[in-house]
User: Fold these one by one.
Assistant:
Number 1:
Amino acid sequence: MPATVIKDIVKAINAGRSFFLTSHINPDGDSISCETAMALFLEQLGKRQYVIANRDGCPDLYRFLPRAGKIIKTEHVQGTFDVALILDASDIQRTGDIIDLRTQVKKVIVIDHHLSAVPFGHLNYLDQKSASCAEQIYNVIKARSKKITKDMALCLYTGLVTETNKFQEANTNPAAFRTAALLVEAGVDPNELGRQLYEENDLPQLRLLGASLSGITVSHKGQIATTIVTRQLMRQTGAGIEDTEGIIRYVRSLKGVKVAIVLREQNNGFKVSLRSKGDIDVNAVAVRFGGGGHKRAAGFFLEGSLARIKKKVFSQINKQLD
Ligand code: AMP
Ligand code: MN
């Protein structure tokens, strides 16, 4: 564990009075868990002057988490802060540029676990081996706090369980289970929390999933499975952008598939999500298109028509598979 940087981070937090917390655009369970747990930690230290802001706010699914209600959705944050905590975002563009770190913040702390992570802060706690960013937040809190509260544990466990897809993705390691055990000891009920996270789908979400799976196409001798989530499909099913999150897991689950692709229509192009089952490094593909992620889960956005985007993406993935 990078003990020195954790110590320095704790010192910087201790010294700060005003704090700015953010994560990446389209935040996921890990993002929200890091922000909310960090907010609870700041409060525990008596530091109540903080702003949590995400360009895309907080997904409904995670609104039940303590302090999730404090997350504001904004294109630009006003004011200045002693400390910025940039959590689970591998580079500054990933935050959606909602703040000017050079002029609005004195000390920038970056905590991240992505393969594509860039040390853009004054203090950078980067750990590619960490299954979730939540565990890194746990390590920071643990270094200073006398008590990991039940609320903190609830947040952190949410990051851990969602980022590892219930402890079964390739990032799942002994440390993930160890931290999970400590969080359960701190009061998390995995069954109750699991129900809240995975058993509360609504009808538009399931309809979108059904339609997306009906539209799967398979190529490259069954090794690539693709589905396209168009705006029209979203309209027909009544689903929102957050309802697209879990689809790719089902696409990847098809037997024989090595790379799953979901193309989601957004703005003037498509958000491309990639998942690999096996040795293919989809991060390498995503980086070529200006995105990033992990070896087996990565993403990026491309402008342009579906046909052109498909052509570009397939040619890169075909190369990886050959
Ligand atoms: P997604 O396909 O959006 O679920 O993302 C899969 C993984 O790739 C996550 O770890 C994301 O944080 C990361 N990721 C997605 N899009 C980008 C991007 N444009 N730049 C860097 N990382 C990304
Ligand atoms: Mn994330």
Number 2:
Amino acid sequence: MTQIKRLAVLTSGGDAPGMNAAIRAVLLTSASYNIQVLGFEHGFNGLFEQDFQTLHPKHVENIIQRGGTILKSARCPALQQPGGPAQAAACLHQLQIDALVIIGGDGSFRGALALAEHYKGQIIGVPGTIDNDVDGSDFTIGFATALDTALDAIDKIRDTADAFERIFLVELMGRHSGYLSLAAGIAAGAEQIICPEFGPLTPADLSSVIKPIQHAQLLRGKSSYLIIVAENSYPGGTSALADDLTKAIGVECRAVILGHIQRGGSPVGADRILATKLGAFAVEQLVQGAHLMMAGEVNAQAVLYPLSQTGDRKKAIDPYLVRWQQQVCSD
Ligand code: ATP
């Protein structure tokens, strides 16, 4: 057991529904160990600007159901500057913070490792990102909600696409990972899914997208056709892809960019439960001496996973579903 008197928590990177539920679990679990909790605002920026508040149980009342994060989130370029990690660590030392809980994605965990080179206390990560691209946890906090939000929108687009027998391209978030796009594409019954995991797509190989469309038109005649596209999958973006397809096949293809709507909203039950479990587990494991680990969930069990390995590989998308999608749906 480590003697932790004061702990800090921050949310970093893209916000994800369920971050508030994780903050709540961190605070309530810490309170049960008589550990004081400081909440830093705006991700790692709070360390540079000494922007923090002491959290009490009243601060986390009625936040389990709220999207966003009461601590705000942000990117923090200062941490990536020379001298940045040392400056951030100095803030933690000055405030006599024994341990830091970082709720964020794999980028935030790279920041954690940089900070750890200078910070003498313990650091633990909690995976919070809609991208579900963190190794060491089957799911990240926010993914389940973002998937449902995306599906709600895609289903509505399908209705109008069906009425007008149109081709729609729907762009989903995931700067470096197509996990959300693949999951949403499969759950929405999309005819095609385009994501980085399937290899780069350029104007030179548009035929790989066109052929299945023409094949479907031959088989079904004019009908609705949905293509889910992970962001950054095509030069110029999904609107450029829709324009190029329109020109190539002579049928109007419309692009819809779902954007930040995917990050908002009340977390679904699965995210609230995951966030509560991982936030609580993170604090319990800090008390047990954990350091430079991430609190994750694998096969429904809370586990520790080295922070240094959380971004090593892209989480593998279920190859069974990928094969099925490519064989069956594009026909
Ligand atoms: P998401 O993917 O959901 O947006 P993320 O945590 O991966 O979440 P990033 O923007 O990649 O988001 O990283 C968040 C912050 O982590 C960065 O703004 C930066 O402050 C810090 N960070 C990322 N990589 C490094 C690094 N190599 N060194 C120091 N800090 C880093």
